[in-house]
Write a structure and sequence with these properties.
The chain is α/β, with parallel strands linked by helices and 364 residues long. The chain folds into two domains: 171 residues, P-loop containing nucleotide triphosphate hydrolases (Rossmann fold), CATH 3.40.50.300; 120 residues. Helices cover 50% and strands 7% of the residues. It contains 15 helices and five strands. Helix 6 links the parallel strand 3 and strand 4. Helix 1 packs parallel to helix 2, helix 9 crosses helix 10 and helix 12 packs across helix 13. The chain is globular and about 75 Å long. It starts with 7 loop residues before the first helix and ends in an 18-residue tail after the last helix. Bound molecules: zinc ion (2 copies). One zinc ion (ZN) binds next to loops.
Amino acid sequence: MQPLIGHAALRRELAALAASPEPPHALLFAGPESTGRAPLARYLAMLFNCEALHPAPPAGASFFGDDLPPVAPAANPGEPCGACRPCRLIAEGAHPDVITVSPGDALCKPRDGESHPAHPDSADIRICQVRGITDLVARYPFEARTRVIIIDPADRLALYAAPALLKTLEEPPGHTVFCLLTAAPERLLETIISRCRRIDVRPVPRADIEAGLLQRGVEPERAAEAAAAARGRPGRALAFIAEPDLIGARGRILERCAEIAAAGLPARFDYARSLAERWRGDQAAVRFELECWEAYWETGLRAAAARGDRAAIAGALEALRAIANVREHLLASVQARPAFDLMLLRFPRGTLVPSTEEELPAHA
Ligand SMILES: [Zn+2]
Ligand SMILES: [Zn+2]
């Protein structure tokens, strides 16, 4: 099993929760993309199900004195072993009772008698999927002590799906724990939030990411480069390792950011149009570009703060807010072109030296 990167304190908190006499039925993992919300939810699933933490009573042993092969104790007391069947299946995403529900077809259950076209590309988690969840949790888990249902991202629950899920959270079924993941907790119903134990997942210090990569056998130079570019997001660092071209692409985008930031309105609007066009075909690429913009303005913000330049600080903060707003607009399916136009209008004008190497404070 690959060890989780960072979050030592949260891991201890989750271990304490899982071992408590009345563990929570629902947890809300709130934090930015790629910071480790899903790995932490799977870690929780291991805490509930690891055979080293929950040894089965040796059936028959008291009558016949059979010596059953002992389960290896966990390497660190209180941590899942990572080697037993449940731990391995959970790590591989193959455990039949640890289920992730995202926008798409997972657990889709049409209403009785209705036909219902498949919706693998839907943008929301639909009520038919919540129906599937309700159905599932009414039954015993296949093999788990505790079933874990991961809802990712919980802010994509459709209008009617959220209240339907709320009903299940209000009458928590046995043997089941819900993990709701989100980067935008303010988009969730207050009634859902109040049912969940909240776990704030913050960016991970660069040194922890680097150490995590080294532990995974990444060579030191690449580990340092990926950890620096990841801006507190272990998932992003792993993507940089898996696809080394991404780091080069990031460098080129940051150079382009510097050009656009120095350019006048016509060039900015051309760029906004190209973003909107690409958004139609490849949303992931545009999201990546927005992340680069965020890195660009954060670098600018640090530089401005270091030299005490108040106007530049205000400009960089406004740019970061503009990026946050454009993300919200795109989530809410606002037309992309005007949203990108507005973002480019709000960016201050000026050049910054792009830097990919500066460290973000861990709790930025
Ligand atoms: Zn285990
Ligand atoms: Zn459906």
